[in-house]
Amino acid sequence: MDFINNDFAKEVSCIPQVTRQSPFLTGEGVIVAVLDSGIDYFLPEFVGNDGRTRLLGIWDQSAAPNPQKGLMPPTGFKEGVLYTREMIDEALSLGRADGQSKVPVLDLSGHGTGVAGVAAGTQLGIAPKADILVIKLGNPLPDTFPRTTQLMRGISYAVKLGTELNRPVVINISFGNTYGDHRGNSLLERFIDNASEIGKNVIVIGSGNEGASRGHISGMVSSMPRVELAVAGYETNLSVQLWKYYQDIYNVTVVSPSGERVILEISDIKKAQTLRRTLEQTELLCYIGEPAPYSVNQEIYIDMLPAGNGNYINEGIWRFELTPVSIVTGEYSFYLPSYAVRNVGTGFFLPTPEMTLTVPSAARRAVSVGAYDAALQSYADFSGRGYVYRYDAERGGISGYSSAIAEVKPDISAPGVDIAVPMPGGGYERVSGTSFATPIVAGSAALMMEWGIVRGNDPFLFGQKLKAYLVKGAKPIRGIAERVGSMAGWGALCLQNSLPL
Asked: Which among 137, 128, 167, 131 has a CA at the least distance from the CA of 155?
């Protein structure tokens, strides 16, 4: 029983002090929405003592609607099928073999099942009496992340349902990708910021597992005008993002492993366009972007593909040389795709671990969660790092407070190493990642909303106010020298300290 209860993770997060003694919080009355890969709803973690489901519903975005059979998406949406609590209960009454045909929702990866179990499972969950809303996001292609629009619709539905039922909602997002400027400016992150202001909700997002993946490097053109990238053998393709300020003008020279080179004359480009070049057996498709309505940054996207009839791009050391033309700031950042879709040996030399938090965890109004090793009281090196922005009195900041902190990401950290999760089909496993630190914070947020909103102690305990209480109660991690930093944010979750009891 100790194995499946995550007792140690709960203890170091100061959770038993408010669940096993007064005020005896359970998450009752709160909705925990898990946007992920689905769920095995037959597991005991998601069934109450009365044998009925603890799921409020499952919206399977990957399923095809069938009006003749009454299988329809939620009202106001066009894709997928919403399986209601009543439909899930009917499936449970038939048993797994027959019930699966009534509600044919599967979780092939087990990720969503694990996340839901940690957040609100009956036995091991942080909020074991919360109602669980599952939104299964469809993957458009193998090894890809859900479409941005699918995630946006899932968030919209969770927020809409909470508003209609007049109930607080915690939205858990335990995945992300590396595409974007990682500063919270993407369309999705701005959407999340706007959604956080509707109803009584809080959106909790993992910072990703790219901290030690060698997928990011940043610098200044004046001091480091050359970036080297190791490409391992048998890479079928690879994309490279370069993000810069639009007012900085410099050309980019791409040098292949054998020394062939091509210059991308970016300084002459006045609007977005695509260039096509070939080096050795690798074709380069280069997109030169322009500022978007929601971002002042410029993107240069280079897609590396096998040329001709080849199957792989050239392995070896590739170089990107930056030649200044007119520099104002000189800052730049390169990003690769997630480590999960790259060969092990592919990565930047001299990588920069800061700003490796994944998109959409840089959303400013979300609670962004990093992971730490609770047993060692140390930072988990895989956890995506963020930033600490400070006011600068000499550059327009608050006079006399040049060292004051303006913004921090991630916001908080939670145990993310050797976390017990339920597995589809039964049993439990120990896993690591910010994916499973995130539901610890999401479940804790549900407990706080139960205390504040459901029990009437603070009807405004949601959104940024809830985040403020979380970070105020955070405690230092002994193995991290910085009290506030890019690794663990404001510190480790301590729920007892965060509740204004």
From this structure: 137
* CA separation for the pair 197, 193 (Å, rounded): 7
Q: Return left, alpha or beta for 203; rule: phi > 0 is left, psi -120 to 50 is alpha, else beta.
A: beta
User: Under DSSP, is residue 317 helix (H, G, I), strand (E, B) or coil?
Assistant: strand
Q: Check: CB of residue 335 under 8 Å from CB of residue 352.
A: no
Class of domain 2-209+359-498: alpha beta
Cα separation of 320 and 327, whole Å? Answer: 17
Closest CA to 70 of 52, 54, 86, 56: 86
Q: Which two tokens stand for residue 117?
A: 């179990």
For residue 270, with 0-12 CB atoms within 10 Å meaning exposed, 13-18 middle and 19 or more buried, which class applies? exposed
Q: Which of 91, 88, 83, 162 shows the shortest CA–CA distance to 130?
A: 162
- Per residue in 156-210, pLDDT (tens digit) is 999 999 999 999 999 999 999 999 999 999 999 999 999 999 999 999 999 999 9
Per-residue pLDDT at 79: 93
CB-CB contact of 46 with 125 (8 Å): no
Strand order in the sheet with 347-348: 261-264, 249-255, 316-326, 226-231, 347-348
Q: Sketch the domain layout of the chain as residue ranges.
A: 2-209+359-498, 216-348
**Long-range contacts (CB closer than 8 Å, 24 or more residues apart) made by 459-467:** 462/168, 462/200, 462/201, 462/202, 463/196, 463/197, 463/200, 463/201, 463/202, 463/365, 464/196, 464/365, 466/202, 466/367, 467/202, 467/367, 467/411
Convert the pLDDT of each residue in 347-397 to its tens digit: 999 999 999 999 999 999 999 999 999 999 999 999 999 999 876 544 444
Residue whose entry in the numeric block shows the structure tokens 């590739």: 318
Contact 64, 81 (CB under 8 A): yes
Query: What's the residue count for the chain?
Result: 501
Number of H helices, E strands in the chain: 10, 24
Cβ count near 442 (within 10 Å): 33
SS3 324: strand
Query: Does CATH place domain 216-348 in 2.60.120.1290?
Result: yes
Residue 431 backbone phi and psi in degrees, to 5: -135, 165
In eight-state DSSP terms, residue 49 is T
pLDDT at 273: 85
Angstrom distances, CA of residue 175 to CA of 115, 338, 365, 371: 11, 11, 17, 13
